[in-house]
Design brief:
The complex is a heterodimer. Chain A is α/β, with parallel strands linked by helices. Chain A has 27 helices and 34 strands. The chains are: A alpha/beta, B alpha+beta. The interface between A and B is large, with 63 and 49 residues.
């Protein structure tokens, strides 16, 4: 019998299955969500969506969702320990949690930690946490593990952006290192990037060369796969740089002179030669044969090469120093470390530099720009190592050497925003207030030095040139005495993240969680971390809730395909199925009950620092006004509790009126500033879903159009920063490695290189387009796909290696790390993996009682130690190139 | 008029959005995929290739499934779309075995994704299926008749799938087949598939 149709509607909204926040249209028939499609009108995804987006329906309707607030009755916590949940009312759950928050806020807000992995929600979370509550501990799940230090700091120094990517629209050659952006294998599936890459490959013959230990999808789709030993990409890049500078002698002299610090004169100690009066770095003008300030308008030419004698002292341009320095990284040296044949490295360097077509130009919207259609793209596979910072910088230096930074075809930033710095370098402009490591955060170090203690639970104070070392929060919790942390964490709020499964070895995280007396979790499912919670808040699914500004600049796809800006409203497609609330609603409720929703700051304005009252002063409403609601007519009243829809309405109407100097307001507002046609209330958004506009050439490629900014090929600040870190850690008695604070790229081997010889295999993990970003294992449709994949749920091993070791297909094995951590899995023999490498799908190996997820596959993260020693001391990135041995189970 | 599809193996990135979009559109029961992606590995390390091949019913011009069907349940329409009439099918499975492309499934027993309950989405969709009969891709014919494209084509994030009239030399599919030497898999079976592939 055919069902009578009494309702048939399509509702526009925004996806929440990864960072990308694609524009969706959702089909609801008779109250049931039956189909999700892409919104054809949106430049974010051009009407198409990935596998994950479709499967949101099965997440929404999963019977395993948490349906009511829960309270733990078993005081014992541990892996596999039954929390003995009892159902409680929202009032009780909120009151219990708010009481803890209130106590902590009054005593010391640093005792509270907030863990989250939703950049789409950060816009509302950060004012709540940092400013209204006053805790500095925003612990990002995945931060420092895949996402993190190296890449963000490089983006900041080279493009004044949070994220950099190839300008695929004009590129012809991408050297892809441990990445897969156009193949859905990065940390989000950018449907738009997939289309752009496919177009570039098909229509312009863009060549892709992939450096990767195993034949991943990106490697399989590339024109060439170059298998490489894990964690040695830095050695490959150093040798490539040497080939460019000393063998082929191909470099873009004009770009190096105008847009890098290559001409800055360097003295014997490695410092810039500066003028005495203003402290400005000097360059050598070969025509006038004298040193001049770098920004002197009368410089006729900039020397890049040579040695210059000034008052009996010798100076060399930084480029000359770099050129000489990289001579030691020979092809033979790199080949031994990477296992990549010397001639292959040389050939890639040649292809890359030739395709870069130094000197070529292109006209875009009437503007003439350099065209450098060859670039390097990298992500987790390359930067997830102890040498993360220097790998990222070296890859970027290579791009800079051929003039391929911030220009068409090259490596460009997402939403770049530059501000001038006294030494000519590029600083973050007001649109980038998430400080990722440049300029180095020396003031935090100085505070540590003065006070004798560390403020941040993730030891972030000790990473002045890094960002995102979030995994160390567990080290901070466990070893607070060693790291001179003067407080203990008393409460934690987790919002859709599962750190015990997704960080590193579970026992380490479990021990840390056990030390926290109170944990509340906002979650869809009882995941492994939520099992440690005292209170569980059931969250409304994204198809049941409102969110706003989900495409903020920190979400990778914020800037739709780099060429458009976009902001989308997320709106409910159905009413919540269960007794749930959205994360934002929960934060408002908690702020209300804990007494930090209302009121203005008590600190008088003349005592504000950086035009801002101190953290913890002023209610959440006040801070939302401060950051996002610049229009006085739409500001929230300070003593009234608003619904989420009302706040969105006022934020939307204020879209063009924000003060960009106000810290995080600039995550979302710069592109709409002063453009009143983009100010709309929620009713408009419910119908039209998003605002968008095309980016101008100046917004996409500012470096050569705005002028006056230089990117580094020499890192003078590093040695000085390292000295300060050394001085500080020595004063505090904290053992700390500062050896990689050097001015030029160098080879830093990862811990794997010194592992005992019987640990003879490396292990790496990977994701696929349909498992990107995580939380895939609790989705039956995605799990069904993973199980169909011949490799994903297994441990892939090279065919010959397996034969030599006496293993065959489907053998069950133990994989054991140097630290004694182990995982069990089944082997898949393949020709498509480096002989020294095991490769396994990530996101699996769950142990909570959710069918399919439980016991399928292995959890690679289990093998990863969480420690300062296994972290890049500069960027804060965790090292993921681990050595293991295998034996039959 | 002959409906057909072109799949560009060079553009395809094994993202499996086609397989999932098909599942969502047609609410196929657990384990049944009208649209799938196969992975093949060839060569010796380090000169090794991995190929991803999306599969679905080939809507053959001369379909074996129709020939072997004892009840006339499997039939070919004038527009080339091969369908199964669930009312005539009694689940003998001949077609499932005979299909040289192995893209038919027998919906053997009633099943659901979660043992504890049927989701509202499945509750609405499963009545479109019938236990005990053969089923397979229908080119999303209901959508196509409304002027839309099949779900797999609509969603394909690599724009690797195209749908149209093979009989019209000016259609996008015809042009792609002409310009890029589109081919049918296993021509030797002699069934003249309506699904063409462009080489990787």
């Amino acid at each position: 019998m055919k069902e009578e149709i009494f309702e048939d509607v399509w509702i526009p909204t925004a996806c929440n299955m990864c960072f990308a926040g694609c524009s969706l249209r959702v089909h609801r028939v008779n109250g049931v969500v039956i189909k999700i499609e892409g919104n054809l009108e949106s430049p974010n995804n051009l009407g198409r969506i990935c596998a994950k987006a479709h499967t949101a329906i099965m997440e929404l309707y999963s019977p395993y969702r948490i349906k009511v607030p829960l309270k733990r009755t078993n005081p014992e916590k541990g892996i596999g320990v039954d929390p003995k949940w009892v159902e409680i009312s929202w009032d009780e759950a909120l009151d219990i949690t708010a009481r803890k928050l209130k106590e902590i806020k009054a005593e010391d807000p640093r005792q509270f930690i907030y863990q989250d992995m939703d950049f789409q929600g950060l816009i509302v979370d950060l004012p709540w946490l940092f400013f209204a509550f006053g805790s500095p501990h925003w612990v990002l799940s995945g931060g420092g593990i895949q996402c993190g230090g190296g890449t963000h700091t490089a983006a900041e120094q080279f493009n004044a952006a949070f994220v950099e990517l190839p300008d695929v629209a004009h590129c012809k050659y991408v050297l892809q290192i441990g990445s897969g952006f156009g193949f859905g294998s990065s940390y989000g599936t950018s449907v738009l990037a997939t289309q752009e890459y496919a177009d570039a490959r098909l229509e312009r013959g863009m060549k892709i060369v992939t450096l990767e230990p195993w034949l991943s999808v990106p490697a399989a789709k590339a024109d060439e796969w170059i298998p490489i030993r894990p964690g040695t990409d830095l050695a490959f890049c150093l040798a490539m740089l040497n080939v460019l500078l000393n063998d082929l002698e191909i470099y873009d002299a004009e770009f190096l002179k105008k847009y890098t610090n290559g001409p800055y004169l360097v003295d014997k100690d490695g410092s810039f030669f500066r003028d005495v009066k203003e402290g400005k770095p000097l360059v050598w003008d070969p025509e006038d044969e004298k040193a001049k300030s770098f920004d002197d308008q009368n410089v006729k030419d900039f020397a890049l090469l040579g040695t210059y004698k000034i008052s009996d002292k010798e100076y060399k341009p930084a480029f000359q120093v770099l050129k000489e320095h990289v001579k030691q990284y020979t092809l033979q040296w790199a080949s031994k470390i990477t296992t990549v044949p010397a001639e292959t490295i040389k050939r890639i360097a040649k292809e890359f530099s030739e395709t870069a077509s130094i000197g070529s130009k292109i006209k875009i919207d009437g503007k003439e720009l350099p065209l450098r259609p060859a670039t390097i793209e990298y992500f987790k596979g390359a930067q997830g190592h102890k040498n993360s910072w220097w790998f990222c910088m070296t890859a970027n230096i290579i791009c800079a050497v051929v003039g391929g930074i911030g220009v068409p075809g090259g490596r460009i930033g997402f939403g770049p925003d530059m501000a001038p710095a006294p030494d000519g370098s590029m600083q973050r402009g007001p649109a980038h207030q998430l400080p990722s490591g440049y300029p180095p955060k020396l003031e935090e170090l100085e505070r540590v030095y003065e006070s004798g203690h560390i403020d941040r639970i993730d030891l972030g104070d000790l990473f002045p040139a890094g960002f995102d070392n979030c995994q160390l929060a567990y080290v901070g919790i466990l070893e607070k005495e060693k790291y001179k942390i003067p407080y203990a964490i008393k409460a934690m709020l987790i919002e859709h993240s599962n750190p015990i499964h997704s960080t590193g070895n579970k026992e380490i995280v479990a021990e840390a969680l056990k030390k926290i007396p109170f944990i509340a979790s906002i979650a869809l499912f009882i995941d492994e971390t939520t099992e440690f919670a005292d209170i569980v808040f059931p969250e409304s699914h994204f198809l049941e809730r409102y969110d706003f500004l989900v495409n903020n600049r920190c979400a990778w796809e914020a800037w739709a395909g780099k060429y458009h800006f976009i902001e989308t409203l997320r709106q409910p497609v159905i009413k919540p199925l269960y007794n749930t609330k959205s994360g934002w609603e929960i934060l408002i409720e908690l702020a209300d009950r804990a007494g930090f929703l209302f009121g203005a700051p008590k600190t008088p304005q003349e005592k504000w620092i950086n035009n801002m009252p101190p953290p913890g002063d002023g209610g959440y409403n006040w801070w939302l006004n401060y950051f996002y609601i610049g229009d006085p007519e739409n500001q929230l009243e300070l003593n009234k509790k608003y619904k989420v829809e009302e706040i969105i309405d006022r934020m939307g109407k204020s879209m063009s009126k924000c003060d960009l100097s106000r810290s995080i307001s600039a995550f979302v507002h710069p592109e709409w500033k002063g453009q009143d046609e983009f100010a709309h209330g929620i009713e408009w958004y419910k119908e039209h879903s998003f605002i968008t506009r095309k980016a101008t050439p100046e917004e996409i490629y500012p470096l050569t159009l705005k002028k006056g900014f230089r990117v580094p090929i020499y890192f003078e600040f590093m040695k000085k920063t390292g000295e300060k870190v050394k001085m500080t850690t020595e004063k505090l008695g904290i053992p700390w490695d500062t050896s990689s604070y050097v001015n030029l790229p160098d080879w830093f081997p990862n811990p794997a290189e010194s592992s005992p010889s019987d640990y003879d295999m490396y292990i790496v993990s990977y994701k696929t387009a349909y498992t990107t970003h995580g939380k895939s294992a609790f989705n039956v449709f995605l799990m069904e796909q993973m199980k169909k994949d011949p490799y994903f749920t297994k441990i892939t091993i090279n065919y010959e290696t397996a034969k030599r070791k006496g293993f065959k297909d489907d053998d069950e094995v133990w994989v054991e790390s140097v630290e004694g951590y182990r995982i069990k899995g089944r082997l898949k023999l393949s020709e498509g993996v480096h002989p020294e490498v095991l490769a396994t799908g990530s996101t699996l190996g769950h142990w909570v009682d959710i069918p399919d997820a439980k016991d399928t596959g292995t959890n690679f993260n289990e093998l990863i130690p969480i420690s300062v020693e296994d972290t890049d001391p500069v960027s804060g990135n965790m090292d993921l190139a681990r050595k293991v041995k295998i034996r039959k189970a | 008029m002959r409906y057909g599809m072109v799949i560009d193996l060079k553009r395809c990135i094994n993202c499996r959005a086609c397989s999932i979009a098909c599942k969502m559109e047609n609410v196929t029961p657990p384990g049944i995929f009208w649209s799938d992606v196969l992975t093949f590995e060839s060569g010796k390390y380090p000169n090794v290739k991995k190929t991803f091949i999306p599969t679905l019913c080939m809507h053959c011009g001369d379909p074996i499934c129709v020939k072997v069907c004892p009840t006339g349940a499997s039939y070919k329409r004038e527009d080339g779309v091969v369908l199964v009439d669930y009312d005539k099918c009694f689940g003998c499975g001949y077609c499932v075995v005979a299909c040289p492309y192995q893209v038919r499934s027998l919906n053997e027993k009633s099943s659901q994704y979660f043992l504890s309950e049927l989701t509202p989405y499945e509750r609405r969709g499963y009545p479109l299926h019938k236990v005990g009969v053969a089923e397979k891709c229908n080119f999303c014919i209901e959508k196509v008749e409304k002027g839309e494209e099949p779900a797999c084509v609509e969603t394909c994030q690599a724009k690797a799938r195209y749908f149209g009239d093979l009989d019209d030399p000016q259609s996008e599919v015809s042009k792609l087949i002409r310009n890029r030497h589109g081919f049918q898999f296993h021509r030797e079976f002699g069934t003249d598939p309506s699904v063409y592939y462009l080489s990787a």
